Amino acid sequence: MKVFLFLLYFAVSKGDLYESYQRRNEVIEDRERIVSSKYFHLNNVDNRFSRRPIVIKSNLDWMKYVKDQKFVSELSIPGTHESCNLIGGPDSVSQRLTLQEQLEIGVRAFDIRCHHISDVFMINHQDIYQGIAFSSGVRDVCIDFLNKHPSEFILIFLKEESQPFETTRSFAETLGKYIKGKENYFYLNEDVPTVKEARGKIIIFRRFKSSIRPLGNFIDFKENEIFTSFTSIIARIQNCKYVKTIHDCYDKWEKVKIVLDEARNNVNALSFYINFINGAGENVFPSVVDDYVKPLLGSYLEDSYPSSFCGIIMADFIESGYDNLISLIIQRNLD
To answer: What residues does the Phosphatidylinositol-specific phospholipase C X domain cover (predicted)?
Structure first.
């Protein structure tokens, strides 16, 4: 009996070791396909509310006109909140354009949420799988764009979404697997690069702690606050996303304006200003807040045009809500 139990234990352990060995050595893209087919064959999400807008490619190479010696923190940059969140109902979706389409209209800062599952990153909004994985849906899209537009660079704010599931390594270790072999496309130093240093690269900003170095700058994010993160960089951030009722939309705008004003009066070239203009609540859809805040933001940018610094603007549905919003942000850099 003891011999039988030993052999059974050995067989199970050997199987676990073999699976662990397989995970370490297989191509991560192949594992993504396995995980996607295994866990996400049926999302059971009604997506009829995601209307597809007409996409006009513009601002493809706007960074080529930015001076090399500027620091990245000195630029006004259009970005998107939950950049890959296209699948869900009206109470959850935050974008209508794919990552590729956002890049093609001038967006350069992205908020990426990854569910760490079976040692790969699947893109989620909370528990809703967005139908793409990190390699083909994010990393490779960015690299392909940078190869075609080498004057540009891309900021990625990376967050772990939901609880890890069936993993054998840390979130940071899996990120390292995605970067391995493609290091030339990433800027991972813990500092503020110049535009010249950043061109052609993906700059990682971590919303998770890591003992692995280098892996990009860590930002100590807080929810529903205006705060300053002091790490390897200084980042002033407005992330007040909770809007209880439609009557609180103006309060959201007031918080956006606080950080816009601070950015406008900034004297430290190495400080980042990151302004999330999105908001939602139990009875307030993201599009409702967006429809309220966008015109106020657009008017503010018009009134302070053309040279006033506004920092990084992270928006829902950035292609809509105010004509030429992206251009109003970009043109502040073209002095």
So the answer is: 68-207
Complete domains list, the chain, with CATH: 39-333 (3.20.20.190)
Q: Give me the pLDDT at residue 51, please.
A: 53
Q: Residues for the chain: how many in total? A: 335
State the Cα–Cα distance between residues 99 and 131, nearest whole angstrom: 13
Q: Are strands 234-238 and 226-230 parallel, antiparallel or unpaired?
A: antiparallel
What distances in angstroms separate CA 108 from CA 198, 261, 329, one per listed residue?
A: 12, 22, 11
For residues 97 and 252, what is the distance between their CA atoms, to the nearest angstrom? 24
Strands annotated E in 105-247: 109-117, 120-125, 128-133, 154-160, 186-187, 202-206, 217-218, 226-230, 234-238
**pLDDT, tens digit (0-9, with 9 covering 90-100), for 219-257:** 999 999 999 999 999 999 999 999 999 999 999 999 999
Coil/strand/helix, residue 36: helix
- Across the strands, what pairs with 109? 79, 155
Instruction: Say if residue 316 is exposed, middle or buried (CB neighbours under 10 Å; 0-12, 13-18, 19+).
Output: buried
Sign of the C-alpha dihedral, residues 23, 99, 109, 230?
negative
CA-CA distance, 226 to 274, in Å (whole number)? Answer: 10
H or E element at residue 217: strand 217-218
